[in-house]
Amino acid sequence: MSSADTHCPYCALQCAMTVTHEGATTVTGRDFPTNRGGLCTKGWTSAELLASPQRLRMPLRKGPDGTFAEVTWDEALDAVAAAFRETKASHGPDANAIFGGGGLTNEKAYQLGKFARVALGTSRIDYNGRFCMSSAAAASNRAFGMDRGLPFPVTDLDDADTILLLGSNVAATMPPFLAHLSGARAKGGLIVVDPRRSATARLTEDGAGTHLQPAPGTDLPLLLGLTHIVISEGLADGSYMEERTTGFDAVRRSVSVWWPERTSATTGVPVALLRQTARRLAARGAYILTGRGVEQHVDGTATATAAINLALVLGLVGREGSGYGTLTGQGNGQGGREHGQKADQLPGYRSIRDPEARRHVAGVWGVDADDLPDAGIPATALLAELGGPVKTLLVAGSNVVVSAPDVEAVRANLGALDTLIVCDFFLSETAALADIVLPVLQWAEEEGTMTSLEGRVIRRRQALPGPDGARSELWIMAEIARRLGAASTWSIDPSEVFDELARASEGGIADYSGLSHALLDTGVEAYWPYRSQSTPRPFTDRFAHVDGRARLVPVDAAPPTPADRTGELTLTTGRYLQQYQSGTQTRRVAELNGARPEARLEIHPATAAGLGIREGMLVAVSNDRGIVRARASVTTDIRHDTVFLPFHYAGDECANRLTEAIVDPTSAMPEFKRTRVRLRAIPDATASRGAAGSASIEEVVHA
To answer: Is residue 582 a contact partner of residue 407, using CB atoms and an 8 Å limit?
Structure first.
């Protein structure tokens, strides 16, 4: 029997668990501050995938007939190296590209960034975290000089009097987190902002708090209006702002036009609730938390900035018993963006355009700083280059033909590549399009580290060996680098890679230089920056700007989009409790997929009645980019002008067939939460896909 204390493979809460392997593999919850022994249904079933018959166990190569055949590792890696070499020779280094993932360990994320810049010499690297945390990260860096999702331990929330939670359905995404909301709920202080009456919004019922239900995409006016009320009613903390911030006058002027009546008319939230919320936040013990619902917009950085401004005006940030934070989603969404997967970053959260950062990191890597490429381009722009300037792509830890905006365009671009290489442990929808598929290890089969939503560096430990034929991405990168004759060293030992990461991060914003696997194995609390000691609350004395002050940055909202005359509705996307991200893992777990086997379109009864849509009826959801087929869930939990789809499903249930590849100008975050769509009921005769004689979904929509 073997066992290991490790952490869940899913969200950034990183719940602690023990994995035991004796014939079969089981998991049990382990006491840890974030989860206190609890797990959600995804965590409890996580071991099922380790022995899945769908696991990839040998490299696959696609033949001229479009079918895969197993090949040896030498054959696969020789072909990968040849593709990279020939592409660079014919088209230059930036014709090779890397697309990473927010679920990779710190070691693999670090090595992937190094591999792109040293082994390939390309600037073309980004990752799926661009679709998750980029707006919050941009706003936090601008305001605080540092992007750490929660700049305090999650247990600080236990004693809160008031928690304003914007755009996050934590009851579905990270259920053990709910325990940290119980104190605020007991005091009637949980305030949830969501256009849906989500499971989290329902926690405000029976006197536990307040649900604010604004129109989709109006979170920015809502926050500006709340800030206006705080200032106009004399609730702002003037001494705090004078001592710890700059820029208040500009923000005061910018929110002056968002008087309560205008804010209410724009958002749909009653004036009385706006005033009640502002006063509650100003009372004491308040926290403001944001999630993807307010950030996955073309104005996501401005919205996150407005939330930070509200927190600063109230004097919440860096004080005991209050604060601001953003809830990281992916398992290593925090660490994954710190050490080199982002197009413009080097390890330690350094800018790749900073000459001193380039010199430092190049010195650790043993290369000339002048040989490192410049900053690349963010994920959506990178995906648009596929098949054009970019000829060869390696994807590690991502399923872009489900998760990216406008996925049909992405699918076409992937098909236009000369070579697509995918590292995965299942034949995901993206892997199915690849020329070469490389089977990799899963979470319980590897050593490494992760960084949780609170900036705590934790150990991932191996509980059992991986299947014969699967390999770590560290080994894969080392073997390709060797074949390419790359400079530097390429260890396959995670502890050695972490030690190199620590040296490369030294002196950076995300400084891990005082950490090692050996130290983490002692159980030490390790919140970064960690030079010689942990920093659980980095803003207690000063912010990370040179002058130690936070920046209040004025932002404004664009005029609301006028009502559409063609009967279009606003589509917003989100998650189910039983599914995760693109569903590559959870759709393969019988219990989880049995609970949520299909995408369901949430629609208000009045809207449904007007369109002739009944509960359980198949509906075609369409716009100029694509068509999605989903079964209707008629519910008063959604606004009459809004419909909801989950984003976990593929094929004709893929919500991102509809989303548009337009992005926030600061963060390059795509617009996922505000898409215009048309609905049409699908007659019963066409309800069965592929049935003889039934019309196609395209024929139904365009009839």
So the answer is: no
Q: How far is CA 552 from the centre of its chain?
A: 25
Cβ pair 257, 212 in contact under 8 A: no
- Contact (Cβ atoms closer than 8 angstroms) between residue 658 and residue 571: yes
* Among 353, 299, 200, residue whose Cα is nearest residue 556: 299
Classify residue 646 as exposed, middle or buried by CB count within 10 Å of its CB (0-12, 13-18, 19+).
buried
Give the span between the Cα atoms of 278 and 233, in whole angstroms: 9
For 597, other C-beta atoms within 10 Å of its C-beta total 12
DSSP character at residue 159:
G
Tens of pLDDT, residues 547-589: 999 999 999 998 656 555 568 999 999 999 999 899 899 999 9
Q: Hey, what amino acid is at 1? A: M
pLDDT digits (tens, 9 = 90+) for 247-287: 999 999 999 999 999 999 999 999 999 999 999 999 989 99
pLDDT in tens, 425-438: 999 999 999 999 99
Please give the Cα distance from 384 to 400 (Å, whole number): 12
Query: Angle of helix 106-114 relative to helix 494-505, nearest 10 degrees?
Result: 70
Nearest to 163 by CA among 201, 192, 205: 192
CB 209 within 8 A of CB 190: yes
What is the distance between the alpha carbons of residues 19 and 693, in angstroms, rounded to a whole number? 51
Q: How large is the greatest C-alpha to C-alpha distance in the chain, in angstroms?
A: 73
Phi/psi class of residue 464: alpha, beta or left (left: φ > 0; alpha: ψ in -120 to 50)?
Answer: beta
Is 429 within 8 Å of 402 (Cβ atoms)?
A: yes
**Nearest alpha carbon to residue 33 among 155, 148, 152:** 155
DSSP 340-358: T-STTEETTTEETT-HHHH
* pLDDT tens readout for residues 293-334: 899 899 999 999 999 999 999 999 999 999 999 998 888 989
Q: Kindly state the tokens that stand for 204.
A: 């405000």
Cα–Cα nearest to 463, from 10, 51, 34, 35:
51
Token pair for residue 344? 């413009």
Q: Which two tokens stand for residue 138?
A: 């941009």
Is 274 within 8 Å of 259 (Cβ atoms)? no
Q: Please report the pLDDT score of residue 683 as a whole number.
A: 84
Output phi, psi for 200, to 5 deg: -70, -40
Tell the burial category of 36 from Cβ atoms under 10 Å away from its Cβ (0-12, 13-18, 19+): middle
3-state secondary structure of 455: coil
Round to whole Å and give the CA distance between 251 and 244. 15
Cα–Cα nearest to 168, from 185, 155, 181 = 181
* Mean pLDDT across the chain: 94
**For the whole model, what pTM was predicted?**
0.94
Q: What is the mean pLDDT of residues 650-654?
A: 95
